[in-house]
Amino acid sequence: MHLELTNQTLATILLDCMHHYPSYKKAKEAFGVILGATEPTSYIGEYSFPIGNVDFRAQDEVSPNKQINQMIMNARKLVATSTSIASYHSHPFDGAYVDWARPSNEDCHYFINEPLEIQLIVALAQIYDESKPYKLVYKKDSTKEFIPNDNMDADPIEKTESTETQYIQGHFQNVAFEIRAYLNTESSLKDIDLFSSEVELNQTLWQHDVHLEQLPAEAMYSIRKLEYAHRQKSQKNASDKIDYHLEKVKKLQIANPIIPTEDDYHNIRFINGLLLKEATSLSYKQAIQLARKGNIFADLHEDSVVLCQVLFDEQANVLFLEDLEKEVGSTIDLADYMVENGYFEEISLCNIRKFPLTFWVLEDKK
Ligand SMILES: [Zn+2]
Hints:
By secondary structure, the protein is α+β, with helices and mostly antiparallel strands. It folds into three domains: 2-199, Cytidine Deaminase, domain 2 (3-Layer(aba) Sandwich), CATH 3.40.140.10; 208-253, no CATH class; 262-362, no CATH class. It is 21% helix and 41% strand. Strands 1, 2, 3, 6, 7, 8, 9, 10 and 11 form a nine-stranded mixed sheet that branches. Strand 9 (157-173) and strand 10 form a beta hairpin. It is elongated and about 85 Å long. The two termini are 47 Å apart. Zinc ion binds next to strand 6. Zinc ion binds at residues 89, 91, 103-104, 107, 121.
């Protein structure tokens, strides 16, 4: 058996844990339940439900309210296909440590008396000075079992097996985290393999240099389809679907507006007193938005290089280049594929000629 988190279960849990960790001094433990299904070879966590209403919450302790929990676990009446399969809580730390997502002795005593079969522990700490993109990876470690110790001041009794168990590590913004799943044997908490379609999706996006932070809202439909294709049971025949949706997402990706550092000075320039950055990939829609604000220019590489402003004619619904160097007022219409592929195509009866375009855009300061 293993636990697989699908949908946005993992992201929801992480956001809940981060929400209770505004800073280390003010950090408190997060707590919630995971709803889903128990299948012959796996537990599937489809939704997570962060629980705000607890009896007591501190940096190293959370005491759930049993009545509230019972109410939420009865949620199968609301979410007809789901039942409660797990709960999660966080371990907020001041730094990243070895074994920081392991159960405490109190965790062992508490959870073996609970009805839920799986426990998830999320260890997290704000350790980065600079904001990091969302990254998730799988890790493996020796399988361990944690047995409650009658000496309440001691650590739980630990048994190590020769097998390995999978867990998740990652970072987001200034937070590093580690997530491990445990099976409740009713006398101990024992490592169980943890999978998440969000990890596999995250890895695919990283491999193809697509970053969620750079995607517009329109891309989210394809991202959902991609997440679905990465689930364990869709793995057969999934690669065609992954390629298809990945291509759609890539087309929607916005060239990341970056504040230039000294190393970037080869691809920035001043035009009309504006500091512009070279756009290495640009969607047609994005070009129109920039053109409406007057924030996009292009170098047209003919025999010589001609600087043009990219403008949009609202009435004719056409994106066009206005020559700023040779003949102001002379214009060239641009089709969507030309913007996206970075060339102007001149089609005459007997010939097709392509002229490369370099787009320069003003960073959108929101
Ligand atoms: Zn704990």
